[in-house]
User: Which sequence fits this backbone?
């Protein structure tokens, strides 16, 4: 799997206020741009600097799923040493699982 971009739910299953979907790998920003759209149309996911956050909407299958925050970490200064994007949406499994499928 070396060199692959992966997506996984990073929060435990069950009831909670937020759920986090973590993308890690070279294509993290590209994948995130397909499912996350910043509220400010002047902001672009692909251009986000490391250690920044954007508020926006998550989309899948042509519809808006939820609103939330995307956190950006650039390689090599991330938990995995790769580019990482963390998508924080409302809690529960449905939205997080739909985001995984969209990724």
Assistant:
């Amino acid at each position: 799997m070396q060199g692959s971009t992966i997506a996984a739910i990073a929060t435990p299953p069950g009831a909670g206020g937020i759920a986090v979907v973590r993308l890690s790998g070279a294509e993290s920003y590209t994948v995130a741009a397909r499912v996350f759209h910043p509220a400010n149309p002047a902001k672009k996911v692909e251009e986000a600097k490391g250690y920044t956050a954007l508020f926006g909407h998550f989309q899948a299958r042509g519809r808006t799923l939820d609103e939330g925050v995307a956190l950006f970490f650039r390689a090599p200064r991330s938990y995995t040493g790769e580019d990482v994007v963390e998508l924080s949406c409302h809690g529960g499994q449905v939205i997080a699982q739909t985001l995984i499928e969209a990724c």
